[in-house]
Structure of Methionine--tRNA ligase:
Amino acid sequence: MVGPVRRSGTPHWFANAPDGSLGSLLMSHVLAAVAWPYANGPRHIGHVSGFGVPSDVFARYMRMAGHDVLMVSGTDEHGTPIQVQADADGVTPRELADRYNKVIVEDLHGLGLSYDLFTRTTTRNHYAVVQELFEGMYRNGYIVPKTTMGAISPSTGRTLPDRYIEGTCPICGYDSARGDQCDNCGNQLDPIDLINPKSRINGETPKFVETEHFFLDLPALAEVLRQWLDTREGWRPNVLRFSRNLLDDLQPRAITRDLEWGVPIPLDDWRDRPDKRIYVWFDAVIGYLSASIEWARRSGDPDAWRKYWSADGAGKDAQSYYFMGKDNIVFHSVIWPALLSGYSGEGSRDGEPGELGRLNLPTEVVSSEYLTMEGRKFSSSRKVVIYVRDFLERYDADALRYFIAAAGPESNDTDFTWAEFLRRNNDELVAGWGNLVNRCVSMAAKNFGAIPPVDPAGLTEADQALLAVARTGFTTVGDLIGRHRQKQAIGEAMKVVAEANRYLSEQAPWKLKDEADKPRMGTILHVALQVISDANTLLTPFLPHSAQQVHELLGGTGVHAPMPVIEQVDDLDGGPAYPVLTGDYTVGARWESVSIEAGRPLAAPKPVFRKLDPSIVDEELARLAD
Ligand SMILES: [Zn+2]
């Protein structure tokens, strides 16, 4: 856990820092590594609730607290499902990936996710980094060749992946078992054992042939992984337990496939073969590193990535947090650390680090649970779905961000219902927070034309108590976000809002109409506006769009919450151009209370959030059903 950085002066949260140690207040290099969305279609709100919003809340808070954050990700574009879908659509896999890369970039931009670089796995830079890791691990003996029996389609000659083969389960007799698993009895299967196997793509009977592939020697890395997991602190207990259990039964795992679409195998006699590629899960996890290297190359300092990655040099004290849904834990808590350890020469076969040097293993794997929709699993084919794009056409990004933070699947599977979305938007965002802002700004503008001064008579106990609640929020909320307890964190921030509303009801400044009472009215509004300013800062990581608006309503200028931009860039190594998400996040509010200035003009009040009509619930449910 890293606390906020001490800046000039002595901010209140410094005095309140829980452990008080200077060490926790030093600036850290922090990598926010966000799961790579698969580019075979648009993403729905279940996807972005697992990886997108939580990682952005964390990255925004850490930057505000003074840390040096690098947040990277991109679209995951290789693998059989993209090849299969491209074939069905009559386009090339690259064309299909181009289409959905663009859609996903626009969606994440719409949500205001502050990536330093959101790229893709089809860049030449990514290919080169994947091949470097493959070669390093191969040299160290952690990647080994092996002959296996693989299914091919007799008509195309292409490999048929396990999940595209269907047949009768040899164990329970279920007639629609998949090559990798029987959904009826739950047993793991091998496609060669299926009775009457058929291709799910075209119905033909697959042929099983001997084929040579490369395997990742996971058993040779089990011990170093166990030692690493034993030193992990603060992980969600279910993630740690699940990861430890995986180590008990590690088998060598194939990392190449018979496929034309993917990264070529960088060994002599292999690199020019059109029919053998590195498998998608192996190349996609390496994206965290390749995207960091791409970001550094674009920044003008090609070595800047080392601050987040080098285990020996510039990055030896860096921290790295990986964000994903729970179906991806194995890739981040076992496979990726295994690749990093093998490349660094740290498994039971020893070895030497490759030319990138020894690399950091994850500090923490932050996994979310599942979001369901109206009690059902998200399913594009059954239309139990709402895509990010459709959502953002009808509602504001912060309304969704609020729902995900306050009611998302942080540590339990949770259900998205339109009724609950409506309730949280109207009762909590609009009536709780938005009205507080509007009432106070309007009353101050009407009666004073600016932020009113504090009466020389001074502050009452009630005034001081409310200001203290807001200031304490910086410690409480920041600490909770730093420990990935975002649901509690936004709850604490909204408690400040609730306290401010209670204070206003009790103080009733609207009753102080006599000229003699005006100084007291001014003091109450000054206190309320100060607490609004503080609460707005506490809510900024969660609600960046509305935080900028509230900042401006309070008469603030400049960037309060920086936003990502989409840029069309050239491939650094001569490949086709593509859009990336990037931004300048060095500007914006810091994680501290900033005193509001009496006399500063207030902007004309306008609602920050949109109240939704209850009829949207039936409209949305009707969309689901048709
Ligand atoms: Zn079965």
In short: The two ends are 47 Å apart (CA to CA).
